[in-house]
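Reading group handout, session on sequence-to-structure problems. Before we discuss, look at one worked example. The prompt was deliberately terse, the way you'd type it at a terminal:

> structure NAD-dependent epimerase/dehydratase domain-containing protein

The input record follows.
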Amino acid sequence: MTQRVLITGAAGYIGSILIPQLLQKGYAVDALDLFPRGDTVLAACCADPNFNPVKGDARDEALVTSLLAKADIVIPLAALVGAPLCKMDPLNAQTTNSDAVRMIVKNLSSSQKIVYPTTNSGYGIGEKGQFCTEETPLRPISLYGTSKVEAEMAILDSGNGVTVRLATVFGMAPRMRIDLLVNDFTWRAVTDRAVVIFEGHFKRNYIHIRDVAKAFMHAIENYGTMNNNAYNVGLSSANLSKLELCAQIQKHVPQFVFLEAPIGEDPDKRDYIVSNAKLEATGWTPDWDLDRGIGELLRGYKMLLNSRYSNV
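And the output record:
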């Protein structure tokens, strides 16, 4: 029997990669989104009769509960993503990122599966030299981090759900995001040949968009053993400072010049290194390292105009 997956925020960066993979694996997908851009990021999915786009708001309880009634698996992707966007629109950030997910949890039965992407920005500012594990206290320093952590806690408190704490995502997708750090710095290397960095020693972990989709598939397929747990999802080979990231990009774009500003500060104060050992112990491994992803971006950026794909 075909399993049905409900995805909210389906036409976003992650959904545009994940949904084709779910369809290819034989799942039926109800793809809920406002589709505000009227673009064609999921157009190729329409060839599959198991794909059902639904135009609507993830906060519409009557609509969402009607879709939940048919769902075996729920993946709530609808969110205002990133600290700058959430700061610009705090009401929508809170109601979409937190309240809408808690509404799903309230209406979910124990026989239904939920896999939720939170963010390892919930770790905020880590202890120097100490890896953040899933047991590390969550100390978000932005509304984005706080709202996502609230949603994650609601799922884990319910006793039914897998949450994936995503590292900073990079890579090409039909619904592109150029504001993400690897994507942004690679864009600047290609277009400006230079970037000025604030607080270049701040570290983060990174993960390719296709490995994010692979983590969702892995959580669905191993739900019985992974249930009621949070998992960091990132590249163990890529706990890098901003300066180290730029040096990696420079290997691909030798003309790229990066300088650290002697004064000024980054409004995003996140600084941490992350252990992904818990997820790796379940048998998940990433396919895309940073170098492969940068190469992909360099090919993709021959086709893009940044003004179309900014998130803010």
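Points for discussion. First: The first strand starts at residue 4 and ends at 8. Second: The domain at 4-170+207-234 is CATH 3.40.50.720 (Rossmann fold).
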